[in-house]
Input
Amino acid sequence: MFVYQFRNLLKIAALQEQFGNDEYSIARESKLHPYVVKKGLNQTRNFSLTQLKKLYTELSKLDTQIKTGQIDIKVALGKFVVEL
Output
């Protein structure tokens, strides 16, 4: 769910630079439901595009570590949330 949410926020933030806060244009381009875009636009105010890219990369690394058994999922997600 974290990956899904940050992926959506990353899409919305990238398209927001092009379309501004036009929910329907962003929804059409991203193929996300307009409600998801509306809520995402509110959340993107808390992050810059650079921060979202960094967080998404970190989640990707954590996913690999979890799946290869290098780190426990509870520890990894707890650490991720604390570092936000």
